[in-house]
Amino acid sequence: MESGPIGQRQWGGFFAGSQDGAPGAANGASGDDRETRRRDARRERAIARTVRRRRAGVLDREAGMATAEYAIATLAAVGFAALLVAVLSSGEIKGLLMSLITSALNFG
Question: Under a CB-based contact definition with an 8 Å cutoff, are residues 26 and 17 in contact?
């Protein structure tokens, strides 16, 4: 007998313990059958809830990764900008840049 993906119920509402294919035939009483179906339905809903929560938890944990990556990239950009300012503010580089700009303006 083929059982469904959650619990012991088969597709179509038949239980795995059923001998003749009728729902709850192994239990005998119709009241027990109803309780068994309710219990199985509650178990399936609880399992589905747990799966949804775990999937949501995985997504939530990974949601902050983009923020951390942006923070690291921003720190790297600020560090590079500080290094560039330090290099360009030196006297030798200032003179080289001024001569380059002056020659570009006088070229035309």
Answer: yes
